[in-house]
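Hi everyone,

Forwarding the result from last night's run.
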Amino acid sequence: MVSQHTEMPAVLGKWSQVLDERVRGRLGTIEPESLKLALIEANSGGKRVRPLLSLWFGSALGVEMERLLPVACLTEWLHSAFLIHDDIQDGDIWRRDRPTLWKSHGIPTALNAADWLLSAVYREISSISLDPSSRIRILDAVSDVHRRTVVGQQFDLSGRADPSFSLQRYEELVRSKTGRYLALGMVCVAIVKGLDDGVVDTLWDVGDQLGPAFQIQDDLLDLTKGKGRGGEMGNDIREGKPSILFAHSLQSSAMTDADKSSLVSIMDRSREETSTTDIQECMEIFDKCGSIEFAKSEARSRSAQGLGIFSGIDELSPVIKAEFESICEYLTERNR
């Protein structure tokens, strides 16, 4: 179903150790111990694509590492906080092939850890060496993404098992929840570098294409055992989540009334009531409606559009643009 691009590009992966050292350093002194352990667990085991993107982009632009690391950390803190909230809202029990934080530490501590992470986002902004106007630009960017992601999550919650859910509504959801979010680190780096609003706006446009491509690939990975959910397939179906597969199939001319009734009924069941047979039935409907092939094509098309927008930024070197091409390929062809 997905291709075999399992390895993160070296241009990103080479920053993993630097980032890990900073993350461990930030979390290692937290008290009380119970909160520290929860935060360390919440920030372990992931790909850390967003902070690594900021380190790669900033290094390529010649920004000093001590000004980049707070940007990398704030994107990691924001992402981890949202994942904690999402897992509680969705009732997910697996994340990155380990129990979710609310399962391992309880809902009260999980919520407290997410709150700490959100406060740390703004602490990182205050630690960057910047002139006042640039700090305000970063604060505006981060707070806007924070707000948009919350709005996107509400679109997600309200679209579950909704028989009228459409591709247009999916676009609204994914641009809010994933698009700007993916571009945030690069935008903050551009501001630190002193690039103008035109470049920043273009980077947001890149996110509006590449973020959806990234999410569409996640929707596809949910139909495999590679998403890090303890080997379970079809968790989006178990949760009734409005994926691109759900949206496309509802609008497909191949969808019969009986298929639609079955699909919506299964998506509306609780996680506990949803069987492996139900998952298989939904996957067969997605396949019959051409939704899986549509999603694959859409992910690649959106990735290509994002790359095209990025490549049009005159201030960036050919080397940066070539490296970004390998990053786009990884984000939309990975199998985990």
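The longest strand covers residues 94-95.

Cheers,
N.
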